[in-house]
């Protein structure tokens, strides 16, 4: 069993504290007077999935309060960025998909994220690019494997 005070926990927290502000800055760059950071996160997440997702799934995936997720989805629907449909899995649920306008917005969000990463990589030595990508792949693989086993 790993201790909360272990060096591994400390290293993961150090990375988290380092990287979280970078992620927040990217979301804030896209958010504006009309769209909050939560709005942007929901649009971005729906841009990554085929067939949309339920409000419950979005709440879980983005770690948002379900009531907040519902308000965000209603707001995005009012802007014609998302559209609900009946769930094929559960008649009590709605599935939310991007509209064509929402897809354009989600693509602009992704472009902004990619631009930010590109600018960040300008400060990284080209010789370190492959090493950085490999390290991030290892992080993703290890944490994904742990998440899958914990939720199975």
Strand order of the largest sheet: 1-3-2
Count of helical segments?
Answer: 6
Apparent shape: globular
Number of strands: 3
CATH architecture: Orthogonal Bundle
Feature tags:
mainly alpha, 3-stranded antiparallel β-sheet, 6 helices, 152 residues, Arc Repressor Mutant, subunit A, 3 strands
Short recap of the structure:
The protein is globular, with a radius of gyration of 18 Å. It contains six helices and three strands. The protein has a three-stranded antiparallel β-sheet.
Describe this structure in words.
The chain has one domain (7-151): Arc Repressor Mutant, subunit A, CATH 1.10.10. It is built from 6 helices and 3 strands. The chain has helices spanning 7-30, 37-47, 55-62, 66-78, 100-122, 126-151, and strands spanning 53-54, 82-86, 94-98. Strands 1-3-2 form a 3-stranded antiparallel sheet. The two termini are 20 Å apart.
Give the arrangement of secondary structure elements.
Elements: H1 7-30, H2 37-47, E1 53-54, H3 55-62, H4 66-78, E2 82-86, E3 94-98, H5 100-122, H6 126-151
